[in-house]
Amino acid sequence: MSKFDYKKVMPRYSFIAIVMTLLAIAVIGKTLYIMTVKRDFWLQVADRVKADNKPIPPARGNILSCDGQLLASSLPEYRIYMDFRTLKRAKKDTLWAEKLDSICMGLNAIFPEKSAEEFKKRLEEGQKKNNAHWLMWPKRINYSTFSEVRRLPVFVLGKSAGFHFEEFNARKQAYGSLAERTIGKMYGAKDTAQCGLELSCDSILRGTKGTKHRRKVLNKFLDITDVPPTDGADIVTTIDVGMQDLAERALLKELKLINASVGVAIVMEVNTGDVKAIVNMDKCSDGEYKEIKNHAVSDLLEPGSVFKTASIMVALDAGVVDTTYHVDTTGGIWPMYGREMKDHNWRSGGYRVLTLPQTLMFSSNIGISRIIDDHFKTRPEEYVKGIHRLGLADDLHLPIVGYSPAKIRMPKKDKRGKQYINWAKTTLPWMSIGYETQVPPISTLTFYNAIANNGKMMRPRFVKEVRKDGQKIAEFPPVVQRESICKPKTLGEIQTILEHVVSQGLGKKAGSPSFLVAGKTGTAQISQGKGGYKSGAVKYLLSFAGFFPADNPRYSCIVCIQKTGLPASGGGMSGVVFHEIAEGIMAQSLKFEAKDARDSTSILVPQVKNGNLIAADYVLTHLGFSPRTDWSGSYADGNPIWGKAVTEHNKEIELTRQPAYAKNIMPDVSGMGARDAVYIIESRGVRVKIKGRGKVVEQSIPAGKPIKKGMLCTLRFA
Question: Cα separation of 714 and 718, whole Å?
Fold first, then answer.
């Protein structure tokens, strides 16, 4: 018989089950009570102590010129808000009511676009709605304006009284619109790259976001960093600020004079392919010229007569002609497969018989087209292959969004191989003089740069290196696109011909009395699409492409201008701009030896400021001094070495490096000049105020102190 006593045990189990059921009902009831009746209360509690993960934006890297000058940098901007819930909890309502009129008058003084009454109405609306994130001004404001706002009554109390803000990194270009489309822009509201190097190098410049959370400790919110941000790196471009400014001023002057619609100017260093200057100008509706589009890399237009150089090179390289070849241009009009080919002087009787060099010197359409058609009409693909060998159709892989390689049509035959399907009889003669093909200015210049560089084609370079905290972390060396674009004999002949184009031909206005210039003019009608070339007012593309000095080329340059109506002359208009750019660049390069400035009255040992020791060493060396240094090796890349200069016994100068300071630590700038001191401090995000002249004798924030956002360092000079 079982020992289990059903009558005794089961009542106990039933009692336990009833108790557990009642407890479950109580828990569920309590949960429902909290979720419904007490929901708002507990949400407020959670809101007061919760920890939210928020991103920490990194500092975007700078864009520098070839010599280290700032082209684009990030500065802080702010949006200002009022939290009326916090104001109420802090029991500052009475103070707010008392100071509201003063606050509104202060806001009106800072933002005169809106009256004090409008500000008062706006703030009263936010208080009525008990809003926790009420926007007080619709636009971002800079640090100076932000500082004025936060000094107003109540706002001066900061977050504890409800005043709070959002900080953004605003992108500013140090030289305004200089090379704007190439340097690039940012979408301000989204802090994202829009175009140019800002966009193509965004992954380098952007950095990596960090994360933080806010936690309430002892009735105060603390920002706790979970993952610190990684700031972006700096990129060093090939742009030379002096050349860029020179090219822009020269181009603008001519654009305004002839009332042109678009202007492009590019300067390239021959040996490296470095783009030293690139200008893109559009005439806007207000009559002003601005950088709207990067025409230099994106304009696929028929290049016109600057393309004739390539045609002659193909013929010379193929051996079908030589420089003694003669061609009859008759009276300036030649029937070409049912269409008339005309020279620019056809009304005055044309050029008659020309030598091959003269066809380029005088830019004869008939002469060039007859040479090419006579020798390649049965095999046009050989001509086009020759153009491709010159590199004009190469994809240059430029780091500029919008770039498109040249489009040069290759003849194709039908399946039977007897008839061309994309080629008319007129295609070859018109292609030979720069029509029936599309080439951006940058590709044309790269071709002429190769001629100047003894046949070696260099890929255009826009970025030289990447730096982080002043140290080089990556380098982009010059890239050879093609080792040789033609035979040496062809190259020597075309170099001579291009020089004669300027000295004896139509390119005289591009020349200089001080040095030799070589190049080619171009004047082409711009197709209006389906309307053809003469739909409405005729539009022209005026060009000059060449290099200087012709006997020892250092720089190549192309100038392209678009205008409507006559007069239109590539040599007389674009050539003038080329002349001014070339003259200006060569004048900038004329430098005297510093030691030549010394005389018998000179101080034997000059005063040397602390700061960039590389610059000091360079100047002292050229003055004939041999300063003692604590480093060895070459610093030709221009990376600064910061330190102190000590003069001993008025005889010797010792340059000593100072220990490197971290980015978040205030450096020692004592004894430095204004330029170096301001650069070092502002590169760490600290604003600088200057008093006096000479060397730094006092800094308001001592060296070694941690840097915080919004710091202002006053430097006293004597």
Answer: 13
3-state class (DSSP) for residue 677: helix
The answer to whether the CB of 277 falls within 8 A of the CB of 239 is yes
b/e string for 27-63 if b means 16 or more Cβ within 10 A? eeeeeeeeeeeeeeeeeeeeeeeeeeeeeebbbbbbb
Q: Give tens-digit pLDDT for 261-281.
A: 999 999 999 999 999 999 999
Dump the DSSP string for 346-413.
GGGT---EEEHHHHHHTT-HHHHHHHHHHHHTT-HHHHHHHHHHTTTT-----SSTT----B-PPP-B
Q: What's the pLDDT at 602?
A: 46
Residues in the chain: 718
Instruction: For residue 223, count other CB atoms closer than 10 A to its CB.
Output: 10
Query: Quick one: pLDDT at residue 418?
Result: 80
Q: Return the beta strands (E) in 426-517 as ranges.
A: 457-458, 463-468, 471-475, 480-482
- The conformation of residue 601, written as its DSSP 8-state character, comes to T
DSSP secondary structure letter of residue 574: I
Which CATH code is given to the segment(s) 53-183+207-231?
3.90.1310
Q: Is the dihedral of CA 385, 386, 387, 389 positive or negative?
A: positive
The model's pLDDT over 45-57, given as tens digits with 9 standing for 90+, comes to: 655 555 567 777 7
Separation between Cα atoms, residue 420 and residue 451, nearest integer Å = 33
The predicted pLDDT at position 487 comes to: 96
Provide the b/e sequence for 532-564 (b: ≥16 CB within 10 Å): eeeeeeebbbbbbbbbbbbeebebbbbbbbbbe
Residues facing 236 on adjacent strands: 64, 465
Output the pLDDT for position 416: 84
d(CA 297, CA 295): 6
Q: Residue 488, preceding bond cis, omega within 30 degrees? A: no
Q: How far apart are CA 395 and CA 49, in angstroms?
A: 58
Of all helices (H) and strands (E), which one includes residue 246?
Answer: helix 241-258
CA distance 11 to 19: 12
The amino acid present at 45, given as its one-letter code, is: V
**Would you say the C-alpha torsion 16, 18, 21, 23 has a positive or negative sign?**
negative
Beta strands at 539-548 and 234-237: parallel, antiparallel or unpaired: unpaired
Distance CA 2, CA 91 (A): 75
The candidate with the shortest Cα–Cα distance to 469, out of 699, 217, 663, is 663
Confidence (pLDDT) at 39: 67
Positions in the chain whose pLDDT score sits under 50: 1, 592-603, 633-638
Report how far residue 610's alpha carbon sits from residue 679's, in angstroms, rounded to the nearest whole number: 13
Rounded to a whole number of angstroms, the distance between the first and last alpha carbons of the chain is 113
Whether CATH 3.40.50.300 fits 241-588? no
Q: Residues 393, 386: contact at Cβ < 8 Å?
A: no
Identify the residue whose tokens are 């660049």. Answer: 585
The token pair that represents 100 in the structure block: 């509201």
Distance CA 116, CA 103 (A): 9
pLDDT at residue 685, as a whole number? 80
Domain formed by 598-717, architecture: 2-Layer Sandwich (3.30)
Secondary structure element (H or E) that encloses residue 341, with its range: strand 339-342
CA pseudo-torsion sign 573, 579, 585, 591: negative
Residue 263 host element (H or E): strand 262-269
